Amino acid sequence: MLNRDEALKLLQEKVHDENLIKHMLATEAVMRALARKFGEDEEKWGLTGLLHDIDYEETKENPEIHSKIGAQWLKELGFGDDVVHAVLAHNERHGVERTSLLDKALWATDPVTGFIIAVALVRPDKKLASVELKSMKKKFKEKSFAAGADREQIKSCEVELGIPLDDFLELSLQALIGIADQLGL
User: How far is residue 23's CA from residue 98's CA, in Å, rounded to a whole number?
Assistant: First the structure.
């Protein structure tokens, strides 16, 4: 398994879209926070989040193979079957069942990062630090707001992770605030 510096170097070689890189950094931050909450391996969970979309630029025109190539790359780089499975399972098109806590955490985390960033971007100062749970909850109900952030997928945190939605939104927000400088927010 790569260490974080090696994983970041790989990410920068494979991904050139700045917003996609920020999404992957954001996913890493939330996954690390979840690992701490559950007493799991923070490095493993963080790297799973960081690299979950490593093949996106190569597969964006063919979503049926997105995450299959990335999962294969991670397997070849020595990542464990649990990480490979989580990356593969985060694309529901493959029909791969989410069985582990890692799988379920990545599934819920993937869309929440974009949702929270969208909430920050409509704030007057465009800063994560000014986002409040109340504003996230209000925007969450607006289906047209950040429409790409699947609300049901985010709400899976309640059943699959046992975390109430409000707590998941707050945990995710705090994780993103922790890397706000990297996200430019």
Answer: 21
Any domain includes 44: yes
Give me the number of domains the chain comprises. 1
List the domain range (segments joined by +) for residue 98: 4-180
Give the model confidence (pLDDT) of 35-80 as tens digits. 999 999 999 999 999 999 999 999 999 999 999 999 999 999 999 9
Q: Are 133 and 169 in contact (CB under 8 A)?
A: yes
What are the residues whose beta carbons fall under 8 Å from the beta carbon of 7, sequence distance 6 or more? 47, 50, 51
Q: Cα–Cα–Cα angle for 78, 83, 84, nearest 5°?
A: 75
Contact assessment for residue 67 and residue 52, using Cβ atoms and an 8 Å cutoff: yes
Query: The pTM is what?
Result: 0.97
| CA 179/CA 83 separation, integer angstroms | 23
How far from 164 is each of 7, 131, 160, 167, 172, CA to CA, in Å? 31, 19, 10, 5, 12
